[in-house]
UniProtKB/TrEMBL annotation:
Protein name (database record): DNA-binding protein
Cross-referenced InterPro entries: ChsH2_C, ChsH2_Znr, NA-bd_OB-fold, Thioester_dehydratase-like
Keyword Ribonucleoprotein: no
Domain ChsH2 rubredoxin-like zinc ribbon per the UniProt entry, residue ranges: 26-56
Length: 143
């Protein structure tokens, strides 16, 4: 069975409310974050109120899709049974150019090749009809 046809057996994010809206954009292959229309700051994880100015007004703003590895860890012993066959793997926190940080993975990079400040760009991994996850690749060109 090819990698693409294997059923996805990992825990899935909630696809309701603001989280559902975020993943709906990802399904359309667009990475968008909330941007406060009061102070202009971006935020992620999606929420109703701006942590900086307390405004309840915001919009979904398209991300440029570029960022850098802020930090990562190498998981060698799975804490959830669904990840047992995936070890070792390296979840990364990517700091986007917009200033928000997103937990994901770098798909074309072994854990030992990761480094803080590594330039990455978003790619989308379709999990099923309802879910597409934002993942990252090493940046093809430095901006």
């Amino acid at each position: 069975m090819s990698e693409q046809t294997k059923p996805y057996d990992k825990p899935l994010p909630t696809l309701t409310g603001l989280h559902g809206e975020f993943y709906a954009w990802c399904r359309d292959r667009e990475l968008r974050f909330q941007r406060c229309t009061g102070c202009g700051r971006y935020r992620h994880v999606p929420r109703d109120i701006c942590a900086h100015c307390s405004s309840m007004e915001w919009e979904w703003a398209r991300s440029g899709g570029r960022g850098t590895v802020f930090t990562w860890t190498e998981v060698v012993r799975a804490l959830h049974p669904a990840f047992a066959d995936a070890t070792p793997y390296a979840p990364v926190v990517v700091e986007m150019e917009e200033g928000v940080r997103l937990l994901s993975k770098v798909v074309d990079c072994a854990p030992e090749e990761l480094h803080i400040g590594m330039a990455v760009e978003v790619e989308f991994q379709q999990i099923g009809d309802a879910l597409t996850l934002p993942v990252f690749r090493r940046a093809r060109r430095v901006q």
